[in-house]
Amino acid sequence: MTIQWFPGHMAKARRQVTEKLKLIDIVFELVDARIPSSSRNPMIDEIVANKPRLLLLNKADMADPAITKKWLAYYKERGIPAIAIDSHSGKGMKDILNKSKDILKEKFDRLAAKGVKPRAIRALIVGIPNVGKSTLINRLAKKNIAQTGDRPGVTKSQQWIKVEKELELLDTPGILWPKFEDQQVGLKLATTGAIKDTILNLQDIAVFALNFFIENYPQQLKQRYNLDSIPDEIVPLFDEIAKRRGCIMSGGYIDYDKTSELIIRDIRTVKLGKITFESPDQYDTN
Ligand code: G4P
After folding, report:
1. Ligand 1 center to residue 239 CA distance, Å?
2. pLDDT tens digits along 36-66
3. Which of 17, 130, 171, 268 is the best mutation target for the ligand 1 pocket, counting ligand atoms within 8 Å of the beta carbon and taking the most?
Protein backbone atom coordinates (compact mmCIF):
# COMPACT_ATOMS: atom_id res chain seq x y z
CA MET A 1 0.00 0.00 0.00
CA THR A 2 1.35 3.40 -0.92
CA ILE A 3 -0.07 6.43 0.81
CA GLN A 4 0.64 9.96 -0.26
CA TRP A 5 0.77 12.04 2.89
CA PHE A 6 -0.41 15.61 2.63
CA PRO A 7 -0.98 17.94 5.58
CA GLY A 8 -4.72 17.19 5.45
CA HIS A 9 -4.12 13.45 5.59
CA MET A 10 -1.71 13.84 8.47
CA ALA A 11 -4.24 15.85 10.43
CA LYS A 12 -6.91 13.23 9.72
CA ALA A 13 -4.64 10.33 10.69
CA ARG A 14 -3.74 12.10 13.88
CA ARG A 15 -7.40 12.80 14.68
CA GLN A 16 -8.33 9.17 14.10
CA VAL A 17 -5.63 7.92 16.45
CA THR A 18 -6.49 10.53 19.08
CA GLU A 19 -10.17 9.44 18.93
CA LYS A 20 -9.23 5.81 19.45
CA LEU A 21 -6.95 6.63 22.37
CA LYS A 22 -10.07 7.31 24.43
CA LEU A 23 -11.13 3.68 24.07
CA ILE A 24 -7.94 1.94 25.07
CA ASP A 25 -5.54 1.38 27.98
CA ILE A 26 -2.31 1.00 26.05
CA VAL A 27 -0.75 1.76 22.66
CA PHE A 28 1.35 -0.84 20.88
CA GLU A 29 3.73 1.23 18.81
CA LEU A 30 5.10 -0.89 15.99
CA VAL A 31 8.47 -0.06 14.47
CA ASP A 32 10.79 -1.94 12.11
CA ALA A 33 13.61 -3.59 14.07
CA ARG A 34 15.97 -2.85 11.16
CA ILE A 35 15.35 0.90 11.50
CA PRO A 36 13.81 1.46 14.94
CA SER A 37 14.32 5.21 14.84
CA SER A 38 13.60 5.96 11.18
CA SER A 39 10.39 3.92 11.19
CA ARG A 40 8.82 5.93 14.02
CA ASN A 41 6.28 8.60 13.39
CA PRO A 42 7.98 11.94 14.13
CA MET A 43 5.09 13.16 16.31
CA ILE A 44 4.26 9.96 18.11
CA ASP A 45 5.23 11.22 21.58
CA GLU A 46 2.96 14.19 21.17
CA ILE A 47 0.09 12.18 19.69
CA VAL A 48 0.12 9.38 22.24
CA ALA A 49 0.88 11.85 25.05
CA ASN A 50 0.28 10.26 28.45
CA LYS A 51 -1.22 6.97 27.31
CA PRO A 52 0.92 3.99 28.38
CA ARG A 53 2.87 2.60 25.47
CA LEU A 54 4.71 -0.58 24.52
CA LEU A 55 7.26 -0.32 21.72
CA LEU A 56 7.32 -3.41 19.50
CA LEU A 57 10.39 -3.93 17.32
CA ASN A 58 8.75 -5.99 14.59
CA LYS A 59 10.51 -7.97 11.82
CA ALA A 60 13.21 -8.88 14.33
CA ASP A 61 13.76 -11.99 12.20
CA MET A 62 15.24 -9.73 9.50
CA ALA A 63 17.34 -7.55 11.82
CA ASP A 64 20.87 -8.03 13.14
CA PRO A 65 20.31 -9.76 16.52
CA ALA A 66 23.34 -8.07 18.14
CA ILE A 67 22.02 -4.60 17.29
CA THR A 68 18.47 -5.49 18.34
CA LYS A 69 19.96 -6.35 21.73
CA LYS A 70 21.64 -2.95 21.82
CA TRP A 71 18.36 -1.21 21.01
CA LEU A 72 16.53 -3.09 23.75
CA ALA A 73 19.24 -2.09 26.24
CA TYR A 74 18.99 1.50 25.02
CA TYR A 75 15.22 1.62 25.63
CA LYS A 76 15.57 -0.11 28.98
CA GLU A 77 18.07 2.51 30.14
CA ARG A 78 15.56 5.19 29.24
CA GLY A 79 12.61 3.46 30.92
CA ILE A 80 10.84 2.81 27.60
CA PRO A 81 9.12 -0.60 27.63
CA ALA A 82 10.14 -2.41 24.44
CA ILE A 83 10.29 -5.94 23.07
CA ALA A 84 11.49 -7.53 19.83
CA ILE A 85 8.90 -9.57 17.94
CA ASP A 86 8.42 -11.42 14.67
CA SER A 87 4.81 -11.27 13.57
CA HIS A 88 5.38 -13.78 10.77
CA SER A 89 6.39 -16.64 13.03
CA GLY A 90 4.61 -15.35 16.13
CA LYS A 91 7.77 -14.99 18.18
CA GLY A 92 7.28 -12.61 21.10
CA MET A 93 3.47 -12.70 21.07
CA LYS A 94 3.24 -13.98 24.66
CA ASP A 95 5.61 -11.23 25.79
CA ILE A 96 3.20 -8.60 24.47
CA LEU A 97 0.50 -9.63 26.92
CA ASN A 98 2.89 -10.14 29.82
CA LYS A 99 4.60 -6.82 29.32
CA SER A 100 1.26 -5.02 28.94
CA LYS A 101 0.11 -6.49 32.24
CA ASP A 102 3.29 -5.22 33.91
CA ILE A 103 2.86 -1.74 32.49
CA LEU A 104 -0.81 -1.51 33.52
CA LYS A 105 -0.55 -3.32 36.84
CA GLU A 106 -0.86 -0.20 38.95
CA LYS A 107 -3.86 1.10 37.03
CA PHE A 108 -5.70 -2.21 37.19
CA ASP A 109 -4.83 -2.70 40.88
CA ARG A 110 -6.24 0.75 41.55
CA LEU A 111 -9.45 -0.09 39.69
CA ALA A 112 -9.76 -3.38 41.57
CA ALA A 113 -9.31 -1.55 44.89
CA LYS A 114 -12.24 0.65 43.91
CA GLY A 115 -14.30 -2.47 43.30
CA VAL A 116 -14.26 -2.33 39.49
CA LYS A 117 -14.72 -5.78 37.99
CA PRO A 118 -11.55 -7.08 36.26
CA ARG A 119 -11.64 -6.75 32.48
CA ALA A 120 -9.38 -7.35 29.49
CA ILE A 121 -6.66 -4.85 28.63
CA ARG A 122 -7.69 -2.77 25.59
CA ALA A 123 -5.01 -1.91 23.09
CA LEU A 124 -4.47 -0.06 19.82
CA ILE A 125 -1.71 -0.85 17.34
CA VAL A 126 -0.15 2.16 15.63
CA GLY A 127 2.66 2.51 13.13
CA ILE A 128 3.76 3.73 9.73
CA PRO A 129 2.67 1.82 6.58
CA ASN A 130 4.23 -1.60 5.94
CA VAL A 131 5.65 -1.98 9.41
CA GLY A 132 3.51 -5.09 9.93
CA LYS A 133 0.38 -3.85 11.70
CA SER A 134 -2.06 -6.13 9.81
CA THR A 135 0.28 -9.10 10.10
CA LEU A 136 0.49 -8.62 13.86
CA ILE A 137 -3.28 -8.21 14.22
CA ASN A 138 -3.90 -11.38 12.19
CA ARG A 139 -1.31 -13.25 14.17
CA LEU A 140 -2.84 -12.21 17.48
CA ALA A 141 -6.43 -12.58 16.30
CA LYS A 142 -6.45 -16.26 15.36
CA LYS A 143 -10.00 -15.66 14.07
CA ASN A 144 -11.19 -14.31 17.43
CA ILE A 145 -12.68 -11.20 15.91
CA ALA A 146 -15.62 -10.17 18.07
CA GLN A 147 -18.27 -7.62 17.17
CA THR A 148 -18.90 -5.58 20.27
CA GLY A 149 -20.72 -2.56 18.99
CA ASP A 150 -22.80 -2.18 22.11
CA ARG A 151 -20.03 -0.84 24.26
CA PRO A 152 -20.49 2.80 25.28
CA GLY A 153 -18.45 5.15 23.13
CA VAL A 154 -17.80 2.49 20.51
CA THR A 155 -19.32 2.97 17.08
CA LYS A 156 -21.22 0.07 15.51
CA SER A 157 -18.43 -0.56 13.04
CA GLN A 158 -15.74 -0.72 15.69
CA GLN A 159 -14.57 -4.25 16.23
CA TRP A 160 -12.53 -5.65 19.03
CA ILE A 161 -10.33 -8.63 18.60
CA LYS A 162 -10.04 -10.92 21.57
CA VAL A 163 -6.53 -12.17 22.25
CA GLU A 164 -6.96 -14.82 24.89
CA LYS A 165 -9.04 -13.64 27.81
CA GLU A 166 -6.91 -10.80 28.95
CA LEU A 167 -6.33 -8.65 25.89
CA GLU A 168 -8.58 -6.94 23.35
CA LEU A 169 -7.30 -5.12 20.29
CA LEU A 170 -9.06 -2.55 18.17
CA ASP A 171 -9.21 -4.22 14.76
CA THR A 172 -8.24 -1.16 12.73
CA PRO A 173 -4.72 0.02 13.50
CA GLY A 174 -3.66 3.64 13.59
CA ILE A 175 -1.72 4.42 10.44
CA LEU A 176 0.72 7.27 10.88
CA TRP A 177 3.14 8.93 8.50
CA PRO A 178 6.91 8.34 8.54
CA LYS A 179 9.60 11.01 8.74
CA PHE A 180 10.11 12.61 5.37
CA GLU A 181 12.34 15.54 6.00
CA ASP A 182 15.65 13.70 6.41
CA GLN A 183 17.00 12.14 3.20
CA GLN A 184 18.96 9.44 5.06
CA VAL A 185 15.73 8.37 6.75
CA GLY A 186 13.97 8.26 3.36
CA LEU A 187 16.74 6.06 1.96
CA LYS A 188 16.50 3.66 4.90
CA LEU A 189 12.72 3.48 4.57
CA ALA A 190 13.07 2.76 0.87
CA THR A 191 15.83 0.17 1.33
CA THR A 192 13.79 -1.82 3.84
CA GLY A 193 10.62 -1.59 1.78
CA ALA A 194 8.60 0.75 4.02
CA ILE A 195 8.22 2.98 0.99
CA LYS A 196 7.52 0.53 -1.78
CA ASP A 197 6.72 2.37 -4.95
CA THR A 198 9.28 4.87 -4.14
CA ILE A 199 9.70 8.32 -5.49
CA LEU A 200 13.38 7.93 -4.70
CA ASN A 201 15.59 6.86 -7.55
CA LEU A 202 16.41 3.12 -7.57
CA GLN A 203 20.08 3.74 -8.16
CA ASP A 204 20.26 6.25 -5.30
CA ILE A 205 18.80 3.64 -2.95
CA ALA A 206 21.23 0.98 -4.16
CA VAL A 207 24.22 3.33 -3.82
CA PHE A 208 23.16 4.19 -0.29
CA ALA A 209 22.72 0.50 0.55
CA LEU A 210 26.04 -0.55 -0.98
CA ASN A 211 27.93 2.17 0.88
CA PHE A 212 26.27 1.04 4.07
CA PHE A 213 27.26 -2.59 3.45
CA ILE A 214 30.85 -1.64 2.56
CA GLU A 215 31.15 0.10 5.90
CA ASN A 216 29.15 -2.22 8.11
CA TYR A 217 28.65 -5.64 6.53
CA PRO A 218 31.44 -6.16 3.93
CA GLN A 219 31.57 -9.90 4.56
CA GLN A 220 27.95 -10.40 3.56
CA LEU A 221 28.58 -8.47 0.37
CA LYS A 222 31.57 -10.62 -0.54
CA GLN A 223 29.73 -13.83 0.20
CA ARG A 224 26.53 -13.04 -1.66
CA TYR A 225 28.24 -11.80 -4.82
CA ASN A 226 31.35 -14.01 -4.72
CA LEU A 227 33.74 -11.10 -4.50
CA ASP A 228 37.39 -11.69 -3.55
CA SER A 229 37.70 -8.10 -2.44
CA ILE A 230 35.53 -5.03 -2.44
CA PRO A 231 36.54 -2.28 -4.87
CA ASP A 232 37.19 1.11 -3.24
CA GLU A 233 34.83 2.92 -5.57
CA ILE A 234 31.10 2.35 -5.82
CA VAL A 235 30.93 2.16 -9.65
CA PRO A 236 33.43 -0.72 -10.00
CA LEU A 237 31.54 -2.51 -7.22
CA PHE A 238 28.28 -2.09 -9.14
CA ASP A 239 30.02 -3.38 -12.27
CA GLU A 240 31.36 -6.45 -10.48
CA ILE A 241 27.95 -7.34 -9.09
CA ALA A 242 26.31 -6.70 -12.46
CA LYS A 243 28.77 -8.96 -14.29
CA ARG A 244 28.37 -11.74 -11.77
CA ARG A 245 24.59 -11.54 -11.97
CA GLY A 246 24.25 -11.03 -15.72
CA CYS A 247 22.85 -7.51 -15.53
CA ILE A 248 24.37 -6.58 -18.88
CA MET A 249 22.60 -4.89 -21.77
CA SER A 250 23.30 -5.45 -25.45
CA GLY A 251 26.59 -3.90 -26.42
CA GLY A 252 28.06 -5.03 -23.10
CA TYR A 253 26.83 -2.04 -21.12
CA ILE A 254 25.98 -2.45 -17.46
CA ASP A 255 22.26 -2.28 -16.67
CA TYR A 256 22.44 -0.16 -13.51
CA ASP A 257 18.68 -0.15 -12.93
CA LYS A 258 18.50 -3.93 -13.07
CA THR A 259 21.54 -4.23 -10.80
CA SER A 260 20.02 -1.77 -8.34
CA GLU A 261 16.77 -3.72 -8.31
CA LEU A 262 18.61 -6.95 -7.67
CA ILE A 263 20.59 -5.50 -4.75
CA ILE A 264 17.47 -4.00 -3.16
CA ARG A 265 15.54 -7.24 -3.62
CA ASP A 266 18.40 -9.20 -2.04
CA ILE A 267 18.27 -6.91 0.99
CA ARG A 268 14.49 -7.09 1.37
CA THR A 269 14.49 -10.87 1.08
CA VAL A 270 17.32 -11.21 3.62
CA LYS A 271 19.64 -12.77 1.00
CA LEU A 272 22.31 -10.36 2.21
CA GLY A 273 21.77 -11.46 5.79
CA LYS A 274 20.03 -10.06 8.84
CA ILE A 275 20.84 -6.39 8.69
CA THR A 276 20.10 -3.37 10.86
CA PHE A 277 20.59 0.05 9.31
CA GLU A 278 20.91 2.14 12.44
CA SER A 279 22.39 1.56 15.85
CA PRO A 280 21.52 3.28 19.13
CA ASP A 281 25.14 4.51 19.32
CA GLN A 282 24.07 7.17 16.79
CA TYR A 283 21.27 8.38 19.03
CA ASP A 284 23.01 8.72 22.36
CA THR A 285 21.87 12.25 22.99
CA ASN A 286 18.18 11.54 23.58
P1 G4P B 1 0.99 -2.76 7.61
O2 G4P B 1 -0.31 -3.36 7.99
O3 G4P B 1 1.68 -2.09 8.76
O4 G4P B 1 0.92 -1.86 6.42
O5 G4P B 1 1.98 -3.95 7.21
P6 G4P B 1 1.65 -5.45 6.78
O7 G4P B 1 1.13 -6.23 7.92
O8 G4P B 1 0.87 -5.43 5.53
O9 G4P B 1 3.13 -5.99 6.48
C10 G4P B 1 3.95 -5.45 5.47
C11 G4P B 1 4.92 -6.52 4.98
O12 G4P B 1 5.79 -6.89 6.06
C13 G4P B 1 4.24 -7.82 4.53
O14 G4P B 1 5.03 -8.38 3.50
C15 G4P B 1 4.36 -8.70 5.76
O16 G4P B 1 4.29 -10.06 5.44
C17 G4P B 1 5.73 -8.31 6.27
N18 G4P B 1 5.91 -8.57 7.71
C19 G4P B 1 5.14 -8.12 8.72
N20 G4P B 1 5.64 -8.51 9.91
C21 G4P B 1 6.76 -9.22 9.65
C22 G4P B 1 7.74 -9.87 10.47
O23 G4P B 1 7.72 -9.86 11.71
N24 G4P B 1 8.78 -10.48 9.82
C25 G4P B 1 8.87 -10.48 8.46
N26 G4P B 1 9.92 -11.11 7.92
N27 G4P B 1 7.98 -9.86 7.66
C28 G4P B 1 6.94 -9.25 8.24
P29 G4P B 1 4.67 -8.23 1.99
O30 G4P B 1 5.86 -8.64 1.22
O31 G4P B 1 4.09 -6.89 1.72
O32 G4P B 1 3.53 -9.23 1.82
P33 G4P B 1 3.61 -10.83 2.00
O34 G4P B 1 4.99 -11.28 1.64
O35 G4P B 1 3.26 -11.16 3.42
O36 G4P B 1 2.56 -11.28 1.04
Report:
1. 32
2. 999 999 999 999 999 999 999 999 999 999 9
3. 130
